[in-house]
Design a protein that fits this description.
Layout lengths: L2 H4 L3 H5 L5 H9 L20 H8 L4 H7 L6 E4 L6 E4 L15
Length: 102
């Protein structure tokens, strides 16, 4: 445990009596901590079918065939938002056909 943190009472960590910025400065004043204005947290996934296609554009038709499922599709899942993309293998990769409203 950090020696500085050992000097903090439980109520100082969870209670309203000491603002968190004051606690930060009290514990780490020698390091010169800086506190920035709070920013709201918001959902920010920018995935799209176009971005998935773009990421697959470096692969040849042979490479795409190894990524094709038993159902004859190429699938991708966004690890951030959970979106699922189901693509025709003929329309992805650098040898792809033109996409026409799958």
């Amino acid at each position: 445990m950090n020696f500085h943190l050992a000097t903090v009472e439980d109520m100082e960590l969870i209670g309203p009596t000491l603002p968190s910025t004051d606690l930060l400065f009290r514990l780490f004043h020698e390091e010169g901590p800086r506190v920035f204005d709070a920013l709201p947290v918001r959902f920010g996934c920018t995935c799209s079918e176009e971005r998935v296609r773009q990421s697959l554009s470096i692969y040849s038709a042979k490479d795409i065939s190894t990524m094709t499922t038993a159902e004859g599709r190429v699938t991708a899942d966004c690890q951030f938002c959970g979106a699922h993309y189901d693509l025709d293998p003929a329309t992805v990769g650098f040898e792809a056909e033109e996409v026409s409203g799958e």
